[in-house]
Amino acid sequence: RASAPTAQARALEGGSGSVLTTPVVEGSILAVLGLGLDLSLSSPLVSRSWEDAAWAHFRLMADARAAAERAKHRKRQAQTSALYPHAVENVAEDMRFMPELERLAQLEPEDVFRALGESRVEKVRRCAAAPVHRAQRALVLGPEALAELILELADGLDAAAGSAEEPWFLRFAAHLSLYARTALKFPDLPREACDALLLAYARHLAEGRQVRLVAAYAALLPPEPRARTMIDLFKGLQSPSERRRALETALRWFPNDVPTMILDAVAELRAAPAVHTGDARLAERASQLGVKAADLLRLEALGWFDLAQEVAEVLGVELALDAKLEAVHAGNCLLRTIFLEDTAADDGGAGAGASAATMAAAQLLHRRYLAEVELDAAEHLSSALEADDWRIFLEAHEAFEAWRGVLSQCQAAHLAGADPFPADASEALKAAAEAARNAIFDVFKLSGGWLLPDPSRSASELAA
Predict the structure, then answer these.
(1) How far apart, in whole angstroms, are the C-alpha atoms of residue 204 and residue 217?
(2) Coil, strand or helix: which one is 3?
(3) Pair 166, 131: CB distance under 8 Å
(4) Helix 323-345 vs helix 356-365: angle between axes, to the nearest 10 degrees?
(5) What is the DSSP letter of 317?
(6) H-assigned helices in 237-322
(7) What's the confidence (pLDDT) of residue 354?
């Protein structure tokens, strides 16, 4: 120890600043073994990173405490017994270094982290403010410091939004809060801040379509934010494979909550379909089918019901949801919604008809989700009647369009000079007209169903 300072300084000065040269390595080792904190921190092996500088402080602090205890023990030996002649020489040497030993031994963890934050090395100072190093500091200092850090991270969510480091920040903060919740027995842990960090990460996963992971993190949240996260995820998924994966994980983590989540997601899409302008595949499919993209998005949302029933059966989970009934009910509501929206948006007055796109969407919805569904009329009377009334209405529209088609053909033949007018064409036109008239009369005779007031709609909308 007596020769260490000179050897340390000579070795470090002769190393020309290169980390891997033998003098620098030897000088750094001697500085640490000699408990020379300032000299250790001047070594490029130590000063190049926050972790190395922190290690040097704590290593020397621990070694100094051990050395101080040994010095006290030797002093007691020399005072109480002559059987330790070497103790006198050791005590004399210890006394020379006791002030430095005591200075190091009296360091507290908070002193170390304060020194790192005030380091002469700019890189070390900058790293001291990074979340990962603040977490290391908090884990060393104790639960109170960790709780304070979690509050700071939750407050910094808005500042991190949109930055290049946001994914890393969210992942780190969420798992730190998860560790604090599960591993620490700390009554004053800010649970709301922990939930905010987990919620932010779950939403980040949902935006990235990490459908297998979202449910795992959402399961750690309170019921309301859990439901909101999953509903938003369901609303954004159109691919059957993604929907299946999302349902599989959700049914494993919180099977009792899934039915309500699906019902709410379908209802919210019906009320306000969120169509992204960049969704070219949805727009292309809507164009091929002759329907609006928003209506196609809402229509395909009805597929959640049958898919949920199918996935639940595969997993052996009992689903508290009548998939067929809910699909029919949601289909009835959607038909009413798209017709009311279409007529309300039309400037032609109360007598204006529904657009071709709306009729195409209604026919598509009926074929996919209502035409082949059989409900128990006694148990589900209202939904069954409404679905049947919509069927009659749509069949009347098809009959009307068929009559118009035959009429157009006859008019074209007449303009082409067909004289006398073909008897078969006349009979076809008469039959089409009679079929359309009868179908329209069937609509006039409907007693309820699709004409029943929707509590969520105003009287003026129903009149239109």
Answers:
(1) 11
(2) coil
(3) no
(4) 170
(5) P
(6) 240-253, 258-271, 280-289, 293-300, 303-315
(7) 74
**Hey, what are 46's tokens?**
């130590």
Q: What Å distances lie between residue 174 and 142, 229, 408, CA to CA?
A: 19, 15, 66
3-state secondary structure (DSSP) of residue 397 = helix
Collect all residues with Cβ–Cβ distance below 8 Å to 80 and sequence separation of at least 6: none
- At residue 35, the pLDDT reads 74
Who's near 152: CB < 8 A, 6+ residues apart?
134
Residue 315's alpha-carbon distances to 6, 213, 214, 383, 446, in angstroms, are 73, 18, 19, 29, 43
Rounded CA gap, 181 and 150, in Å? Answer: 11
Residues in the chain: 464
Spatial CB neighbours of 44, under 8 Å, sequence gap ≥ 6:
15, 17, 18, 19, 24
Q: 374: which DSSP letter?
A: -
**E strands along 5-122, which residues?**
none
- Per DSSP, the three-state class of 272 is coil
Nearest alpha carbon to residue 405 among 431, 373, 379:
431
Q: What is the pLDDT of residues 285-339, one digit of tens each?
A: 888 989 988 899 999 999 999 899 999 999 898 888 888 888 888 888 888 888 8
Is residue 122 packed enough to be buried (19+ CB in 10 Å), middle (13-18) or exposed (0-12)? exposed
Phi/psi at 98 (5° precision): -60, -40
Report the pLDDT averaged over residues 230-246. Answer: 92
Contact predicate 247/258, CB 8 Å: yes
Burial tier of 205 (Cβ tally within 10 Å: 0-12, 13-18, 19+): buried
- Tokens of residue 232, six digits: 């938003």
Number of Cβ within a 10 Å radius of residue 260: 15
